[in-house]
Structures are given as structure tokens and as C-alpha cells.
Amino acid sequence: MNKKWWHDKIAYQIYPKSFFDSNGDGIGDIPGIIGKLDYLKELGIDIIWLSPIFCSPLADQGYDISDYYNIDPRFGTMTDMENLIAEAKKRDMYILMDLVANHCSDEHEWFAEAIKNPEGKYGKYFYIEDVKDGKMPTNWRSYFGGSSWDLLPGWSDKCYLHLFHKKQPDLNWENKEVREEIYKMVNWWLDKGLGGFRIDAIINIKKALPFKDYPVDRDDNLSKVNNMLAEAQGVGEFLSELRDRTFHLHDAFSVGEVFDVKENEIANFVGDNGYFSTMFDFGTTLIGGDEKGWYAYKSVSPEEYIRTICSSQEKMNDIGFLANIIENHDEPRGVSRYLPEEGRTEKGKKMLALLTMGLRGIPFIYQGQEIGMENVQFSSINQVDDISTIDEYKVALRAGLSEEDALHAVNKYSRDNARTPMQWTAEKTAGFTDGEPWIGVNPNCNRINVESQIGKENSLFTFYQKLIALRKNPEYKDVMVYGRFVSHAKPEENLMAYVREDKKKRLFVVANYQSKPQKAVIPGQVVKVLLINEGELVIEEQELLLSGFQAAIMEIQ
Fold it and tell me: Among 34, 140, 361, 511, which is disulfide-ready with 551 (CB 3.0 to 4.6 Å)?
């Protein structure tokens, strides 16, 4: 593997709207982020990824961009953004922005021009088709529910494609002019000093052509868009062009939001000359899924969680790095999803952190994960802002669930669980704002907050600091970053155990993923215990006696 500047870095995702509000309007902003850079530096963060802060009507919380070259006034100014890049650089930190290039906003000037003249230059920037006999071109279901096609505003015989929200028309990547516009914009930002980009929903840029229907899979007579994407060929041509025309020119870091990559194509995405520096491992987020909808999802078992992670890791040993996550802005809180109820304690949260931070790859911490933020309990669907959650609530109602049961079902998986304000203090607004927050604060901020954890020896925050420091420790950095991953336990025993090894060092990472104590065989002589999540580690010859949810990292021979 060719060594890169980003291999040993720790990344942190900020959802700007909910991170810190500097002016009391209830919305987080860029000056608020600047004010918290020292907090992130103290945690040990090197790379900061910002969810979108471009101009946007916020139909999908900024993932509908109306101007790629400007900052939305809600979040600040271009001067604020330039200051953030500069202040981060002073602290040896890098800023990533979100590259949302599968679609733009219907309020972007390109789409406004396309509406005026669908047959003209800008009409070809999108997928605009004729409506024949009142029928849309295909039966694809958008990711947010309903048809992927809508009538072009002002036209009764023309429609446009939107795989996401109807205010997010898909850009036509088959059009070279569109690609050139994207590359120009990416380089403009990289020239400003960005460290790179997180690339949003990028597999969607390649459609299976010509358009056709796919088998209906719900009672809405539509077909999930994944059926079409599975037949799309040639996305690599677009992605390699994007890489060569932008990221490679700047030695920039890029992380792809990529689902359903075929195993024989992984190296194309994240190998030495992959399309991206890394891509997120979403394996655990797909556990328990059901095509019928969130209401039919199954809870995640420790066995499934362990097996999924081990499978992902073993595939990557000879290829490259994954970006390892517990949660992000599109998922519920990881500690609420992956820990059984009896494990949602400081000890269990530390176990989850230890298991993830010990993996091979780039750790991505989502805001609030380092203090153990949990899901919020909505008492009414009216408290929900997320369009995806609202759609899934309707799906559950159509399936016959009561309003109470439907709400309970979507509560578990709502994206708003991760979008409630960052909990800085125990105050009513969690120290996030002096005003009225744009979305409700989780009431448990009175016990889960930064102020109560920072500087405290046994807190979760401090434990994350220790994990990060271990990854950066010169004695262990090479094995933690580049060492192979070797699985060492049977998942059905609710024991996650693996070895990280190179030619000089061997580390053993082990966790008892249940409340009952159990033993684990140590695959070598213990040289030094490096980190334990809680309590004393009981070692009897070549066996560990682990208490419930106990986890440790040790050096072994």
C-alpha cells in the first residue's frame, strides 16, 4: 500500500445546523464551529467533515444545493468559511465539505433555465422526459417515497427525474458539460484550501439506460430504485475522471458514500489508485433491514454485528482502508441501535468505542458520539423534521399499524435522532443556543453532556481521547494503522475478538458483547494491557475472564 498523509488521521463529522449556535438564532453556524475547534483538537481530531453549508432551501437539510459557490446565510458567510479553513490549518486540522453532485436543488439557476427551455442547453443538464398518455417514464420509487418522476413546473407533458426529494432534480452525468461544471466547482473549493470532500450518494450518478420499469415490490405499484442501479454499468468511468480531474491534482482526501459495491470491484474504489481515498463501511447499518419499511426492521444482535464487521475487515486487508463508523447524520444513534438495553451504560458505550477504534481503517466519529448521545423519544410525528422519517411513518400506517405503533417504529430509525442539538451542558437548550433551537433538544442532556465529561478520568469522552492517543502513539501507530486484521472468535458466542498485527507488533482486541461473564482464549503471551473499558482484567494463564460488556486492547507476543 502506498502510504498517504491521511492514513493515520482521526475524522469527526459535524452536522452544522445542530453543532453550536453563535448568534442565538437557534441554528448552528460556522463561527460556532470555529469556537469549538480547540475542543475537537483536545479530543484528538485531525479531519473535520461538514455536512452541507451551501445555499439551499433545506428541503433535505442542505443536500439540495441552490448555489455551489456560496455559503447559506443561516450558517455564515464565505469569509467565515475561509476563516474556518485558516483556523483549522493553524491547528494542523483539515476541513472536508460535502460534494453533492448527483442532484442539485430545483431552485438552482440551472434548473430554472431548464424549466424555461427543456430542449435547450440546461434542459440537457437534467433527465427531462415526455409524459405519454399521463404515464411517467418508469415505475421507480424515490428514496423518500413516491415516484422518482414529477411534472416539470409549468409543463403538463414533461417530467424530470429525482431519485431523492422532488426538490432535488438529478443531474445528467452523461452530459460532459455537467461533469465539467462539477470539476470546476470542486477545484475552486480545493484551491481555497479544503482538505477534501465526502462524496454524497455518488453511485446514483450512473443510470441504467435506456429507462425501463422493474418489478413492483410494494403496494404503491412502484419499484425501489436499487433495482435500476444494480443494472447500471460504467460508473467507474465517471468516478475515475472525477478523481483525475480534481482530487489527484490536489492530493486531496476523499471519502465515498457507497453502497452495494461488488466484492471484485472494491479495489477500484479504494485501492492504491481507487476512485476515493476511502469509503464508509455501511455493513452494520444494513443489518435487520426489510424492504417493507422501517416498521418491519429487526433489532441488531451482537452475533450479526460482529460477523458483519469481521467480514468487511477481512475483505480489506490487501486492498485499502474503510472509513469506520458507529453512526452518522443519516442513521439513529449507534449506542441505541447496536447495544442491548442492558448494555446502554458507560461501560457498554466504551466497549463499542474500543471495538470500532481498534479496527483497520479511518475512524469517523459523529458529533456527540464521544459523549454517548442516545436516541430521542418523539411523542408525536409533528416533532419530526426529517422527510424520510415522515415517509416511513406513512408506510407503517398503510401497513395497518396504529399511529402509536407507527411512531414507535420510526422512532428507532429516524435520522432526527442524530440531528438533535449537540449536548454541551445540562441546561435546557444543552448549551447549544441562547435562543430557541430549530429542533428539540434531547431531554437527557441533563445527564449526557460535554461539561460533565471533559477532564473527568473515567468519562466516555476521556476514553475516546485515550483510544485516539493509542492510535497515534509512535510505539503502536504502525500496527494500529497498517496492521492486518485477523478475526479470532466465533460471533455466535457474543465475543468479538481480533488481532491487529504487522512484522513488529501484535495487538489483541477483545470484547464480551453480552451481560453475562465469559472466557476468551488469548492467542499469545500478554506483554502489556494497553486499555480496558472498565474494571480489572482477570487473566488466568492463556484465558481472560471478562465481565459483562468488558473490553480490552493488549499487546501480545
Answer: 511
Structural domain that includes position 335: 11-101+176-383+416-446
Phi, psi torsion values for 439, nearest 5 degrees: -140, 155
Same domain, 194 and 328: yes
Q: Counting Cβ atoms within 10 Å, is residue 35 exposed (0-12), middle (13-18) or buried (19+)?
A: middle
High-pLDDT (> 70) share of the chain, %: 100
Residue finishing a domain among 393, 413, 433: 413
Contact predicate 250/190, CB 8 Å? yes
- pLDDT exceeds 90 at position 471: yes
What secondary structure, in 3-state letters, does 468-488 show?
HHHHHCCCCHHHHHHCEEEEC
Residue 131's CATH number: 3.90.400.10
Number of domains in the chain: 4
3-state secondary structure of 94: strand
**Residues 42, 135 within the same domain:** no
Do residue 196 and residue 337 come from a single domain? yes
350 with 392, same domain? no
Which residues does 79 contact at the CB level (< 8 Å), separation at least 6?
none
Residues 72 and 138 in one domain: no
pLDDT grade for 415, boundaries at 50, 70 and 90: very high
- Whether residue 59 contacts residue 387, with contact meaning beta carbons closer than 8 Å, is answered with yes
Q: Domain holding 526: CATH number?
A: 2.60.40.1180
Active-site residue among 60, 80, 170, 257? Answer: 257
Q: pLDDT digits over 27-84, tens only? A: 999 999 999 999 999 999 999 999 999 999 999 999 999 999 999 999 999 999 999 9
Residues contacting 184, CB < 8 A, separation 6+: none
Q: Is the Cβ–Cβ distance between 21 and 36 less than 8 Å?
A: no
Q: Which of 46, 98, 170, 200 is catalytic?
A: 200
Residue type (1 letter), 225: V
* pLDDT at res. 492: 87
Residue 382: CB atoms within 10 A of its CB come to 8
Whichever domain contains 435, its CATH number is 3.20.20.80
434 assigned to active site: no
Rounded average pLDDT over 512-529: 96
Instruction: For residue 200, indicate whether it is catalytic.
Output: yes
- Whether the CA torsion 449, 455, 457, 462 is positive or negative: it is positive
